[in-house]
Amino acid sequence: NLQLIKESKKSSEKDHTDHFLNDVLTGLQSTPKHLSSKYFYDKTGDELFQKIMAMPEYYLTRCELDIFKNKTSEIAKGIRADQEPFDLIELGAGDAMKSTYLLKHLSEIGTDFTYMPIDISGNILSVLEKNLKRQLPAIDIELLEGEYFEMLEKAMTLSSRRKVILFLGGNIGNMSRKEAEKFCIALYQLLNKEDIVLIGFDLKKNPYTVLNAYSDKSGITAAFNLNLLSRINRELDGNFNIADFQHYESYDPITGACKSFLISLRDQKVNIAGQLISFEENEVIDMEVSQKFSRSEIRKLAEKTGFRITGEIADSKDWFIDSIWKV
Ligand code: AVI
User: Fold this and answer.
1) H helices of the chain, where?
2) pLDDT digits (tens, 9 = 90+) for 228-287
3) How far, in Å, CA of 186 to CA of 181, rounded?
């Protein structure tokens, strides 16, 4: 009852590198300069993100864990676990630490479902597989290794059962407003009438609480950002001098945008795969947005992209919500 399905050959390692190089050069040749935080997660980045999730300042993971641990039956009700059998698809499942609580509950109440975690990292999927085999040997699992939409399309062809999509962790906050809308519309177009989506949103809260979560004194978030420059050095033959860049975090409590930048500490030229990129002293690279939402902003996003909100589960502090949407 376990299967691994990978991306088709057309997405080979070389294609990934070409894509990465192209995005990096386009981003650094733009004004203002930018890089995509989706590239944060190589092996070192994965490890740094694990450390971030364990930091006392980084409340997001603990809040959503609170929901999955303590409000599991509410989630089960929200996704209509007592109705027809379904495929439970998790986008960017990672080690599935939070969703394991739901899987355990669903199997205890005798739900008929197949768990389909999607992740770009084969490494983390094998960790997940090992954990689940040990903890929940009886559930059906299809591991889907690849990009979200490519694997979602694959999942749609694997069975005709209704789909429940989990998109946890506040990952939607790492998209710009436009990207988030495009993502939701694409999801809406792919899904059918009976399908359900559960999305994790980090709520607007005391601005200091937000800012502190992304500007920790231990410097882990700084290292997480700077690791992308090291990754460019490693994988794209770059020669960034990491000590010449400094992390800067900002939070705008009105728009809810928490943003990460790297500041160039001097005039410098960096070579990436033979291309020279010039930086002025104090010029910044826009690295990441971690968008915070109000409930009305979540409602607008759902309505604008065709969905209907059918439920909402908050943690005990009311800092984070899992919002349940129906097609
Ligand atoms: C994965 N994502 C939801 C994290 C966030 O909170 O935006 C990534 C992160 N960046 C800095 N710290 C954590």
Assistant:
1) 13-28, 43-54, 59-70, 72-78, 99-108, 122-135, 148-158, 177-190, 207-214, 220-236, 295-304
2) 999 999 999 999 999 999 999 999 999 999 999 999 999 999 999 999 999 999 999 999
3) 9
Does ipTM surpass 0.85 in this model? yes
Partners of 314 in the β-ladder: 321
Q: Which atom of ligand 1 is nearest to the CA of 49?
A: 13
Mutate to test the pocket of ligand 1, among 35, 36, 37, 53 (most ligand atoms within 8 A of CB): 37
Tokens of 119: 């992740």
* β-bridge pairing 257-264 and 284-291: antiparallel
* Residue nearest (by alpha carbon) to ligand 1 atom 6: 290
Determine contact, residues 92/116, Cβ cutoff 8 Å: no
> Residue 267 in contact with residue 17, Cβ under 8 Å?
no
Task: Give ligand 1 pocket residues (Cβ under 6 A).
Answer: 52, 60, 169-171, 173-174, 214, 221, 224, 288, 290
State pTM to two decimals. Answer: 0.94
Q: Which atom of ligand 1 is nearest to the CA of 288?
A: 10
| Cα–Cα distance list, 125 to 3, 24, 62, 234 (Å) | 12, 26, 22, 24
| Residue whose structure tokens are 């939409």 | 149
Residue of 38, 174, 203 to test ligand 1 pocket, by largest number of atoms within 8 Å of CB: 174
8 Å CB contact between 91 and 118: yes
29 CA to centre of ligand 1 in angstroms: 25
Pseudo-torsion of CA 83, 85, 91, 97, nearest 10°?
Answer: 80
